[in-house]
Specification:
This protein is mainly beta. The chain contains 9 helices and 47 strands. It is elongated, with a radius of gyration of 32 Å.
């Protein structure tokens, strides 16, 4: 036995000696050579250098030298220097036919890529297989192994672990998921276990981030929410250059194809290599890198399954390091700013690493997926799995250092009250500030408009700390100019366990803008400043009881059903005249139904949350309202219909086009209070500079308040956002081109007394330009009014305003 142990000890050094690290550079220019081949002749092992020319490779004692080669350069043999950094300079080949050879390899690479694209239907699992299933283990860490990481630059608004932890990593999360795919419903994920160092509850901010795509066959490849052109996409040859670096001889030989962007300034692209099977032209391995604001290294390994004749992804990894700017990566609803890496540093410190392995693969067996099932489902027991479950399902070692992370990070999070900060940030985004079991409604604190002047008040709503099954809410405000108190109160009751149905009963005594049309299903939004409200001067008083049922038929389809009765009084001399009777005060009883459908978006659902992961377009909204005469003394009967389509096209050239098409229609006895305007945002003042204010998001900047009203209208708004350019972290200007159009009419124009206004029957047009994010969220805009409603005085057709876009 002792002899056997001695023999093993003697042989051990021959197995693993260490690592050889280094850089491969051009001899004359000293520029790095990305994806040069580093080969161990005795072990038949090959690695490729990274985008910065760096490499590392495991070596054994029997290894004597490295063979380093690169297309168009002389191959060099370098002695091994274990655990030391070496620099290898390759000299270009002095060949008359070099240019011809390189052109030939480019043509050969293009031919291979063209064949790989043509055979995607035979190699892409989503196209070839009717169904598949697998489970995965995912581990994400933020490491602190380098002095170059600058976590201490995180400010108070960034809810994250702010200091380095000596014995553990700065951040760690684990996740185990089951994946199921069929062609009818696509790929669905069920999270069976998840845990994050320092947190007892699910960290939805992290679960909702798309860290890395699962396929290189698509038109785009996503890394931390940013899409890059796919090297096998439909526009591959428009976006990339290709050349052959090597041919790997193994059981299934592969071409090594190098790809790099043709037009990086126009289309976001990666630089990398594809191992393409010489027989099937399937991907055996893929690696993509980017060196810029972030240093990105994404890779994916495939395994061959003879029974299906397919290469299927079994492992993938992603590393992010700080780049030339302090690019931000959103985690916990805040941001972690990256520090800078010295470009001459021999050690490239790890900043963030996500690793995933796939196992227990099953192909073409029946898969049961519920129709309209969410893309991601979080099981209720996922955060309560015992340690035995983790030990059984881990496929990546969980080290002592990882254990220290969970202990030390938990202590840090408790000490610095990180959970409280997360709660504040998440509530602030939707307009609340949490205090114990109450949330303060920030939207009620202070506003300004031309009717009330300053409007000050407070609003409160209970949160889950009091109860997750019901909510109580109220507000009270005071307008200084009109010297009036307004208020509202109510309560909401959860009708089912999964949080999809709520019944709310409310009462308000307040003012509303004349002609404004609100969709019941629109998400509650909050901004630090609401520019359009400043200039509104045409309101009516309302006292309204309402009962509202909100219900989600599925994550993609939500609805709102409302019964309401309101008593209305005018704040001006306006009167509505019908049947020889003039109305200043009147009552309206109506039923409203609103629907919002997001058929192309992807959602995450849990027992108490529904989160939109990918906002895909178009989105559709529909609302129908019916008022009834003589119901609870209601004075009028009318029907109103609103329909809206939102569309956004995000292109790989980092430009975005947004389109909003909205139609409104009303018939019956319709007072002006319940008609439609087109969201004007131009103060009714004479001089151009007097009208200088802040532009809205979807408003007509040259249309004056109370200038137009309609009972039927159609609006079209188009915005095109060009790629922003980076000046510094507080100034990233972005050019936006805008075109807005509206047409409408009113059937009973003479029924509206004591107010002069026009309809939109000739069509209203304006064009504008914005330069946003010039400084601290502020920019500038200009718009011009043209067409049928062009005004005689040239200055009256122009608007000049600030823009304000601050991401919370």
């Amino acid at each position: 036995m002792q002899k056997l142990l001695l023999l093993l000890l003697c042989c051990l050094p021959n197995l693993i000696l260490g690592q050889q690290k280094g850089f491969v550079l051009d001899q004359s220019t000293k520029a790095p050579l990305p994806f040069a081949s580093v080969y161990l002749p005795g072990e038949k092992t090959t690695v490729f250098t990274n985008i910065d020319g760096s490499f590392e490779i495991n070596i054994s004692q029997q290894t004597q030298k490295l063979e380093i080669s690169y297309l168009g350069y002389q191959t060099q043999y370098v002695p091994i220097q274990p655990n030391k950094l070496i620099k290898v300079y390759l000299a270009p080949k002095a060949e008359n036919l070099k240019e011809v050879a390189i052109n030939t390899t480019y043509l050969a690479a293009n031919k291979i890529i063209k064949e790989a694209i043509a055979k995607k239907s035979q190699n892409d699992p989503d196209l070839k297989l009717n169904s598949y299933q697998y489970n995965s283990y995912n581990k994400l860490i933020i490491d602190n192994e380098s002095q170059f990481l600058e976590f201490n630059q995180i400010n108070q608004d960034n809810v994250a672990i702010k200091t380095l932890i000596e014995k553990g990593r700065a951040y760690l999360t684990e996740q185990i998921s089951d994946f199921a795919y069929n062609k009818e419903e696509g790929l669905k994920e069920t999270i069976t276990a998840t845990r994050t160092a320092g947190f007892k509850k699910p960290v939805y901010q992290l679960l909702s981030i798309k860290v890395q795509s699962s396929s290189w066959y698509k038109d785009s490849y996503t890394i931390f929410g940013t899409s890059y052109a796919g090297p096998l996409g439909n526009k591959a040859f428009k976006n990339y250059h290709y050349k052959i670096l090597d041919t790997l001889t193994r059981k299934r030989p592969a071409y090594v194809i190098y790809f790099h962007p043709k037009r990086q300034q126009v289309v976001a692209g990666l630089e990398g290599i594809l191992h393409i099977d010489t027989t099937s032209y399937a991907i055996q391995r893929a690696k993509g890198q980017l060196k810029g604001n972030l240093i990105i290294n994404a890779s994916q390994d495939f395994e061959y399954f003879p029974s299906q004749n397919i290469w299927f992804p079994t492992a993938q990894s992603l590393t992010l390091k700080p780049g030339k700017h302090q690019q931000e990566v959103a985690i916990f609803g805040g941001n972690i700013r990256l520090g800078n890496i010295s470009p001459t540093s021999a050690e490239r410190p790890l900043y963030l690493k996500a690793t995933q392995t796939n196992q227990d693969l099953i192909f073409n067996k029946p898969v049961s997926i519920t129709k309209n099932q969410s893309a991601v489902t979080l099981l209720e027991k996922a955060t309560q799995q015992p340690e035995s479950f983790w030990q059984k399902n881990r496929t990546i070692p969980f080290t002592k250092r990882d254990e220290n992370t969970f202990t030390s990070v938990s202590q840090r999070i408790e000490k610095e009250n990180i959970n409280r900060k997360i709660d504040i940030v998440e509530n602030f985004k939707i307009g609340y500030f949490p205090i114990s079991f109450l949330n303060i409604d920030l939207r009620k604190l202070v506003k300004y408009n031309n009717y009330e002047s300053f409007r000050l008040g407070t609003g409160l709503i209970t949160n889950d700390k009091l109860s997750s099954n019901f909510k109580l809410h109220n507000y009270i405000v005071y307008g200084f100019k009109d010297d009036q108190i307004k208020y509202g109160f109510g309560g909401a009751l959860k009708l089912n366990k999964n949080n999809r149905s709520w019944l709310d009963i409310s009462y308000i005594d307040d003012i509303e803008e004349v002609g404004a049309y609100q969709y019941l299903t629109d998400q509650q939004s909050y901004s630090l400043f609401e520019p359009r409200l400043v200039n509104i001067n045409f309101y009516y008083k309302t006292k309204e009881w309402s009962s509202t049922l909100t219900h989600r038929f599925s994550p993609k389809l939500k609805s709102s059903w409302q019964l309401s009765h309101s008593t209305i009084d005018q704040t001006t001399n306006y009167r509505y005249e019908i049947d020889s009777k003039s109305y200043k005060n009147y009552q309206i009883s109506k039923v409203s139904v609103g629907l919002e459908w997001s058929p192309f978006s992807e959602f995450l659902t849990s027992n108490n949350k529904i989160i939109e992961l990918d906002k895909n377009y178009p989105k559709f909204s529909l609302q129908v309202e019916q008022a009834f005469r003589n119901v609870l003394d209601s004075d009028f009967s009318f029907t109103k219909i609103g329909a809206k389509i939102n569309y956004s096209l995000q292109q790989l050239n980092q430009q975005t086009t947004e389109v909003i098409l909205e139609g409104n229609y009303a018939a019956g006895e319709l007072p002006l209070t319940h008609s439609f305007h087109a969201y004007p945002n131009n103060p009714t003042k004479d001089a151009l500079l007097q009208r200088f204010s802040i532009a809205g998001i979807r408003t007509f900047e040259t249309m004056y308040f109370s200038e137009f009203f309609s009972d039927k209208q159609l609006n079209l708004q188009v915005k095109h956002f060009f790629k922003s350019w980076y000046l510094w972290k507080y100034s990233q200007p972005q050019l936006v081109l805008i075109s807005r159009h509206a047409i409408g009419d009113m059937a009973q124009l003479n029924n509206h007394i004591n107010l002069d206004f026009k309809t939109l029957n000739h069509g209203y047009n304006e064009a504008g330009v914005e330069i946003n994010q010039l400084l601290m969220g502020f920019g500038i805009s200009a718009a011009y009014r043209y067409g049928a409603y062009h005004l005689p005085n040239f200055e009256d057709n122009i608007s000049l305003k600030f823009t304000f876009n601050l991401k919370l």
